[in-house]
Design brief:
This protein is mainly α and about 100 residues long. About 85% of the residues lie in helices and about 0% in strands. It contains three helices and no strands. The relative contact order is 0.13.
Length: about 100
């Protein structure tokens, strides 16, 4: 997935960044729980989306609006999970970062 999917590579960079920031800020166990669940959800949906797209390409190599809709919905699920993960990151990191800069 990392070799073939650009979005997976972006998720990998984000994952490493979030883990590094979490370690630097000394997150609590509950904060790590929220981060790990969010990251796991995004990765799980990205994998499912990649699998669905590959299967759709085999089943229907020609353009089919029903296949396009299935791909769009799966990609939308990944996007929704990523937006949710951003919200979790804002809730977990936001107050700590604001404290760090004295705001």
């Amino acid at each position: 997935m990392l070799r073939s999917e650009e979005n997976a590579r972006l998720h990998a960079i984000a994952t490493f960044g979030v883990v590094a920031l979490g370690l630097a800020l000394g997150l609590s166990r509950l904060e790590w729980l929220a981060i790990v669940l969010s990251v796991g959800l995004v990765w799980s949906l990205e994998a499912a989306n990649t699998a669905l797209e590959a299967l759709c390409d085999v089943v229907s190599p020609e353009r089919d609006p029903r296949i396009a809709k299935a791909k769009d919905v799966a990609a939308g699920a990944v996007l929704l999970a990523a937006i949710t993960a951003l919200g979790v990151a804002a809730l977990v990191f936001g107050p700590r970062l604001l404290d760090a800069i004295g705001a």
